[in-house]
Description:
Strand order of the largest sheet: 2-1-3-4-5
Distance between the termini: 46 Å
Radius of gyration: 21 Å
Shape: elongated
Helix content: 25-40%
Order of helices and strands: EHEHEHEHEHEEEEEHEEEEEH
CATH class of the largest domain: Alpha Beta
Largest sheet: 5 strands, parallel
Amino acid sequence: MNLKAIAIDDEAPALAVIEKHASKLPFLSLDNTFTNPLKAIAWLQENSVDLIFLDIEMPEMRGTDFMRTMNGLTSANFIFTTAYDKYALEGFELQALDYLLKPILFTRFASACKRALAQSAPPPEQRAEDGDSFLFVKDGHDWVRIDFEDILFARSDGNLLFIHQTNHKVVTRMTLQNFISVIPEAAFVRTHKSYVVALAAVRKIERMQLVLNNGTKVPLARSYRPAITQELIQRDQSASDK
């Protein structure tokens, strides 16, 4: 597994140090660097990463405020990179993965990145296997159990997946294709390039959308409509035969 990362610091020399350290780690890809955190926010609206190196003292926005702004908008881990240790407590209260003091030594940098790598990949025992009725996914810094029977639908946005359950929503870093590979094939159907729906949750098929039992409307692409209609008819006939 590889980590995708960006670095944000208003000082170009500090970014150069991070770029140099990152180039020595084969599992780390530094996709972009920013001297302006506001530009980083705009970039993250269209791109996803696993790790964000973040300075704290910046003129446009403090790093801690940046992290608060991105709360719920990214599942990336944060590593603060700063010359001031006075922000350490605040950083850890925000659940930053690590706190690197400048000048950043490569050994400390590598150690922090290895922690990020370990947190980004689920332990083998947490991966869904054939016959399982649930899987564990990472939501922020926590591992959350998802019972397949509680899922209404899932929506993808790049490498982020929004799993909607009856009374809860989980955001995790996973592609829709990976999600499809672990859920029960007979119980779910794809309705759109970005959506998968639980067949049991469908109340009505309309021309361009499905209406779910809780009233949620999910887009229905024309190319998926025949397969979905057939699946629901077969499901209804099977239920009637019992």
